[in-house]
Design goal:
Number of helices: 13
Shape: globular
Strand order of the largest sheet: 4-5-6-7-8-9-10-11
CATH class of the largest domain: Alpha Beta
CATH superfamily of the largest domain: Enolase-like C-terminal domain
Low-confidence stretches: none
Order of helices and strands: EEEHHHHEHEHEHEHEHEHEHEHEEEH
Radius of gyration: 20 Å
CATH architecture of the largest domain: Alpha-Beta Barrel
Structural class: alpha/beta
Number of domains: 2
CATH topology of the largest domain: TIM Barrel
Mean pLDDT: 97
Amino acid sequence: MHDDPRIGTVRARAYTVPTDAPEADGTFAWDKTTVVVAEAEAGGETGLGYSYTDASVAQLITKTLATRLSGLSAFDIPRANAVLWGAVRNLGRSGLAANAISVLDTALWDLKARLLGLPLARLFGQAQERAEIYGSGGFTSYDDRQLREQLAGWVERDGCRAVKMKIGSQPERDPARMAAAKAAIGAAHLFIDANGAFTPKRAIGTAQVAEQFGVTWFEEPVTSDDPAGMAAVRAAAPAGMEIAAGEYAYTLDDLRGLLGTGAVDVAQADVTRCGGYSGFLKMVGLCEAAHIDLSGHCAPALHLPVALAAPRFRHLEWFHDHVRIERMLFDGVPVPRDGAITPDLTRPGHGLILKTRDADAYVV
């Protein structure tokens, strides 16, 4: 173990990967995904972090934040976080700045674990042995055949006990799409995600329709910027349907607002947005205090070690885009078995290594 390694070089690059088909949800459409990857060095080891965000985040890291970390102890992550959050005070904490700090925080935790020769799951400690996953995709741009094949594949191939589809861009089509999805997945649970497409009244009507298709999870029925509206949907939703949100909780205050208004049955957090592993662990504490379960949003390979540290952890989102990109760009990604993933405790850190040659084809 190194006595007191100091952070040296910090670098970041952006990579843009085309989707394998046009994708859309209730409020957005896209044909490519950008991931910003950062590496931090100390004591002869390198830690890696990333976020699905805009390419400008790489510039924010290299031109504004990297020099603030230089010379700090790689073991003192709380000090590094205080420096980083202080550096973005006048930029605004949420959004791109939070994404940049999330990238660096996950890289620093990976670096610390590698310096100690430990897998991150051991460094954080495990409350769970495995992370249950649910398949996520079912984009509104898909036809019914694509929808059925994708959702059924997660159930049949990976053993997922739940799958999630997007709704809301063409609400009149959603009942037929939900019926097709439920017929394809059999006894598995059907989740829906509106990405904030509806007003509270419209969302309540959608929840009542969705009940007949066995929907047990309704994510972001209204925008997360309206926690009171979401709380109204939660109060009126069928008893067997949970309301979930939190993927846009960039700070503890964001999540505290959702929990304090009774907006959700299950909270979500995203390590690539919420301040990295440090922010995620703080959100674990908030959920403990509120007696609310927590679900990891997207980026499943990066979430795995910290999700297992959460006593009230529910599951990870096995999101089509991110699973595909993580397999393309990184070695060491987890492989599903019986609807769950487990950490490789023979690999230090989170176990992920950038496949530089493969990634270079997508560099921005």
